[in-house]
Design goal:
The complex is a heterodimer of chains A (223) and B (85).
Chain A: H1 11-15, H2 18-41, H3 45-66, H4 70-87, H5 97-111, H6 154-166, H7 170-181, H8 186-193, H9 197-221
Helix pairs in contact in A: 2-3, 3-4, 3-5, 3-7, 4-5, 5-8, 6-9, 7-9
Chain B: H1 12-17, H2 19-23, H3 29-41, H4 43-59, H5 69-84
Helix pairs in contact in B: 3-4
The chains are: A mainly alpha (223), B mainly alpha (85).
The complex binds zinc ion.
Chain lengths: 223, 85
């Protein structure tokens, strides 16, 4: 339903450690946001357009996982932009602009009231049938075609990863989108989604485990 | 006396459930040592953790699509309206 995202080969991912690369990207983005913010306060239309270019698709991606239909998601994102334009004077800059945007969006999405009550299920992230009676792996873990290093071919796996993300239950998807796709800190994720640290971690853990399980057959097939 | 009581080793089923706590750096030093001891002895859990790392890296590389010119035009129009209200 929301598999409409393209993947661009990002330079830094090819040659550097992913953590370092993401840190650098996030840092540049935050500096650019500070500049945008002051221009936005001055009523600079070009600054607004730039902000929209940077965040529209990302807001939509999160909104689609929080409300029931794509049309409602579009509405929620539009409401978010209106709140930004009307509320920019009151933004105190205590959080990053990015976190502020996601938080407005999440609040709007919640207030549409369409969403069912939120409940975090407990239970294992990896199915009990994978283990024997003593709790050891019943079968060896099959090796993957790729490792998490600078040689990992992210562009190649992007279509499968997008499928895997859309296969996640909504609440796990929200957390994984913000934490792993957007690169927010877990404190920021908790603030945006109004989650306790414990629940954020459970959802992240289950989401990541489920992504891995989805990717597995693809990764094992092409050795 | 208490110091002599060794905690039993983790089993795989427990270890995999600790992967996120470990990767988030949210374990006590003692928990971490126990987890890493298991990883050293268990190629399956080591492979599992490595696959979770690869999964996170792949998720981090999924970019949002570019904005369509129509959406940009619509929002610019709205911006002018909101500013003039
Ligand atoms: Zn193990």
């Amino acid at each position: 339903m929301w598999c409409t995202y393209s993947v661009r080969a990002r330079g830094p991912f090819v040659t550097r450690r992913p953590e370092a690369a993401r840190g650098a990207v996030a840092c540049e983005a935050v500096e650019a946001d500070v500049d945008l913010l002051s221009r936005l306060r001055d009523g600079d239309e070009a600054a607004f357009v730039q902000l929209v270019e940077r965040y529209q698709s990302r807001l939509l991606r999160l909104a689609r996982s929080m409300v029931s239909t794509p049309a409602v998601a579009e509405e929620v994102v539009q409401d978010t932009w209106m709140a930004v334009v009307k509320g920019i004077e009151r933004f105190e800059g205590r959080s990053s602009l990015r976190t502020w945007l996601f938080r407005i969006l999440a609040n709007r999405a919640r207030s549409t009231g369409i969403r069912e009550q939120r409940h975090v299920a407990s239970g294992p992230a990896v199915d009990a049938s994978c283990f024997d009676a003593a709790g050891a792996w019943a079968q060896p873990v099959a090796p993957w075609a790729e490792r998490s290093d600078e040689r990992l071919d992210a562009a190649r796996w992007a279509p499968v990863m997008r499928e895997a993300l859309s296969d996640l239950p909504p609440r796990q998807r929200e957390v994984v989108l913000l934490r792993d796709v957007e690169g927010l800190t877990s404190d920021e994720v908790c603030a945006v989604l109004d989650l306790s640290r414990g629940n954020e971690r459970i959802l992240l853990h289950r989401g990541r485990s489920r992504l891995r399980a989805f990717l597995g057959p693809h990764m094992e097939a092409v050795r | 006396m208490m110091q002599l009581v060794r905690r039993r080793d983790l089993v795989c089923q427990e270890a995999v459930e600790l992967a996120t706590l470990y990767l988030e750096g949210a374990m006590s030093r003692r928990e971490r040592r126990r987890f890493e001891t298991h990883l050293r002895k268990c190629p399956n859990c080591a492979a599992y953790l490595e696959q979770i790392r690869a999964t996170i890296q792949l998720a981090g590389a999924v970019d949002p699509e570019d904005l369509s010119p129509e959406a940009r035009a619509d929002l610019t129009e709205l911006y002018r309206r909101w500013r003039s209200e």
